[in-house]
């Protein structure tokens, strides 16, 4: 396929490439990169070593390509979005009209990386909607679990192959996709007694709660002080939301291991149905009044999820070492 | 005083403040910013450093780094270094204040450091020292910044914490007005955000075009605190005024940037207030 900018491929574009052979991958990537360079666009490839080894020698003849490894980008959704925004900004400052990205999206297989994968793919459709960025996400169907492949496919408005680019008939808009797919269950450590167990917290207890979590986390984990402080801020915002918008009693549990801190916050309220809440900043000019806490929380913790049952709302936060 | 928030210190009264810093840098910058504001207002400053201490650990060097002409301030009688055993004595703060007032100064600030104080006094006596200090600050123009190293809990630490301003049934927070604006201290969350907004409103009503909000001593700024920053300065900014956000520590800076204060009309963020 001639991935030709002249055919009017719009930026932003968020395409999915689902391939079953190295040949298919190369047949798409090489013309895609060549066209981009011909039009003075910046080209970025986010890929694991194995894929990089395949692409780099071939692309070396085509032109300058920036290679980045997935762990540098895909730690948390809002962070990954920011990195793409910064990539685009740098390229634009250097005079490029657009950025073409080839992205092997991978938040890791362990823990809840798969759910974060879906989150990022869904949120990217909105968060990067104003960027001059043509992002093609790579999915090697030989190596990835079927479920991840089919869910990720639903996040892309367009699909590409070595021959064509077409609107994805199975595309699911971001909010609905998140609603369907991004809930996670408890972490394994939650089966053990918590290191901190606070029942029925009231606002006056916020300061004390923060101090208690600080002491418990500092003593029990190797996470750096800054990361613990960040996590405290995230917990504070979630607890505040429960106190203000939820229904008591508000309870907090914290588990600390060497490598990870997990915190659940429960209240008896009905929760809220806004799967995108906290993934996008509010309007910067007006300064957000509502939703600011959740946006901060997502920026200060590695993982944040909500689940609602007839008993109420449970928020689950976690952060871990690099 | 009707309308004054509980944690707002009326000019002319003393503030008994507690500071727990995460690093040597934070400790130095919080102390020196607070002292400099006092010096600029004509208040004296008295402190004690261990014998032979000079160089980066000393108070004098922290002040010098902020641009204070330490020698000149000493010659002017504004800066007093006191021997440790004289400083950490039960009646020392009140005596120092009386001497300063006799010299013609309007007010005095002192800085206590628990690490040093506990070399001179045993923990129980240090609590008495703090108790007396709190009483003096509440009744006269003596202000004290008490620096502590530890964030760990302990009965002693809890007791001494509660003697300081801003600690009570809400998160610890104090706002100190001066001619240029406000010096904020502590944590702001939903328990005290309205008080922060009120302090800002009052300061804004007295300020010229530029309202200085010094955040050096703020350890936690939440979404609620940011909302208070906006609401408390609405009138000031609507009238054409600007709000200078000074010296925010890195975590506070991140919050401000995430909520767009670095681009918001009417707000100017400055990292290094020097």
How does this structure look, described?
The complex is a heterodimer of chains A (322) and B (274). With 322 residues, chain A is of the alpha/beta class. Chain A has 10 helices and 12 strands. Chain A has helices at 22-38, 49-60, 70-73, 77-93, 113-127, 146-153, 174-181, 206-220, 225-245, 292-300; strands spanning 13-19, 42-46, 66-68, 99-103, 133-140, 158-160, 165-167, 196-198, 251-256, 260-267, 303-309, 312-320. The radius of gyration of chain A is 21 Å and the shape is elongated. With 274 residues, chain B is α/β, with parallel strands linked by helices. In chain B, 42% of the residues lie in helices and 22% in strands. In chain B, helix 9 links the parallel strand 7 (181-188) and strand 8 (210-221). In chain B, 48% of the residues are buried. Classes of the chains: A alpha/beta (322), B alpha/beta (274). Chain A binds chain B through residues 203-204, 206-207, 210-212, 214-215, 218, 225-226, 229-230, 233, 236-237, 240, 243-244, 281-282, 284-285, 287-289, 292-293, 295-296, 299, and chain B through 22, 151-153, 169-172, 187, 189-191, 220, 222-224, 226-227, 230, 250-251, 254-255, 258-261, 263-265.
Name the strands of the widest sheet of chain B in spatial order: 1-5-4-2-3
- What overall form of chain B do the CA principal axes indicate? globular
Q: Report how far the terminal alpha carbons of chain A are from each other.
A: 39 Å
- The parts of chain A where pLDDT drops under 50 for at least 5 residues are 1-7
- If you average the pLDDT of chain B, what whole number results? 87
* Helicity level of chain A: 25-40%
How many strands in all of chain A? 12
Q: What is the helix tally of chain A?
A: 10
Q: Beta-strand level of the residues of chain B, as a percent range?
A: 15-25%
Structural class of chain B: alpha/beta
The end-to-end distance of chain B, rounded to whole angstroms, is 34 Å
Structural class of chain A: alpha/beta
Rounded radius of gyration of chain A (Å): 21 Å
Strand portion of chain A: 15-25%
């Amino acid at each position: 396929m001639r991935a030709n900018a002249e055919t009017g491929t719009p930026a932003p574009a968020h395409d999915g490439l689902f391939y079953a052979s190295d040949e298919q991958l190369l047949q798409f990537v090489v013309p895609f990169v060549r066209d981009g360079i011909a039009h003075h666009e910046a080209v970025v490839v986010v890929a694991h070593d194995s894929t990089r080894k395949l692409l780099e020698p071939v692309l070396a003849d085509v032109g300058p390509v920036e290679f980045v490894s997935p762990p540098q980008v895909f730690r948390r959704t809002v962070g990954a979005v920011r990195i793409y925004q910064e990539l685009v900004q740098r390229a634009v400052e250097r005079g490029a009209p657009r950025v073409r990205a080839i992205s092997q999206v991978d938040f890791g297989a362990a823990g809840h990386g798969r759910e974060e994968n879906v989150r990022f793919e869904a949120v990217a459709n909105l968060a990067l909607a104003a960027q001059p960025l043509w992002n093609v996400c790579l999915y090697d169907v030989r190596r990835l679990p079927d479920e991840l492949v089919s869910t990720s496919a639903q996040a892309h408005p367009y699909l590409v192959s070595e021959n064509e680019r077409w609107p994805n008939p199975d595309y699911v808009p971001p909010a609905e996709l998140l609603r369907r797919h991004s809930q996670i269950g408890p972490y394994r450590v939650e089966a053990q007694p918590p290191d901190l167990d606070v029942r029925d917290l009231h606002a006056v207890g916020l300061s004390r709660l923060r101090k208690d979590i600080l002491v418990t986390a500092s003593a029990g984990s190797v996470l750096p002080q800054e990361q613990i402080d960040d996590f405290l801020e995230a917990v504070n915002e979630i607890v505040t939301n429960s106190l203000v918008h939820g229904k008591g009693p508000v309870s907090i549990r914290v588990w600390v291991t060497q490598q990870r801190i997990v915190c659940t916050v429960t209240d008896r309220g009905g929760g809220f149905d806004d799967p995108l809440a906290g993934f996008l900043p509010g309007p910067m000019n007006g300064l957000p009044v509502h939703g600011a806490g959740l946006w901060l929380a997502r920026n200060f913790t590695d993982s944040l999820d909500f689940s609602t049952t007839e008993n109420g709302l449970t928020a689950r936060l976690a952060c871990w070492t690099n | 005083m009707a309308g004054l928030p509980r944690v707002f210190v009326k000019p002319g009264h003393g503030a008994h403040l507690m500071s727990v810093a995460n690093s040597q840098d934070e400790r130095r910058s919080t102390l020196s910013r607070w002292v400099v504001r006092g010096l600029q207002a004509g208040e004296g400053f008295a402190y004690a450093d261990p014998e032979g201490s000079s160089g980066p650990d000393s108070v004098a060097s922290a002040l010098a780094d902020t641009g204070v002409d330490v020698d000149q301030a000493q010659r002017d009688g504004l800066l007093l270094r006191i021997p440790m055993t004289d400083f950490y004595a039960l009646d020392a703060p009140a005596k120092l204040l009386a001497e300063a007032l006799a010299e013609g100064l309007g007010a005095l600030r002192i800085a206590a450091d628990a690490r040093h104080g506990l070399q001179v006094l045993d923990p129980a006596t240090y609590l008495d020292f703090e108790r007396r200090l709190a009483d003096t600050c509440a009744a006269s123009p003596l202000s004290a910044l008490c620096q502590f190293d530890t964030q760990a809990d302990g009965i002693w630490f809890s007791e001494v914490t509660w003697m300081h301003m801003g600690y009570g049934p809400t998160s610890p927070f104090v706002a100190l007005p001066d001619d240029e604006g406000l010096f904020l201290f502590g944590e702001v969350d939903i328990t005290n955000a309205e008080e922060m907004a009120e302090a800002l409103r009052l300061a804004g009503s007295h300020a010229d075009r530029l309202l200085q909000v010094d955040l050096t001593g703020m350890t936690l700024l939440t979404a609620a605190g940011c909302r208070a920053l906006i609401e408390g300065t609405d009138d000031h900014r609507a009238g054409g005024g600007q709000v200078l956000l000074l010296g925010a520590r890195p975590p506070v800076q991140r919050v401000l940037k995430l909520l767009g204060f670095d681009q918001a009309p009417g707000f100017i963020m400055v990292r290094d207030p020097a």
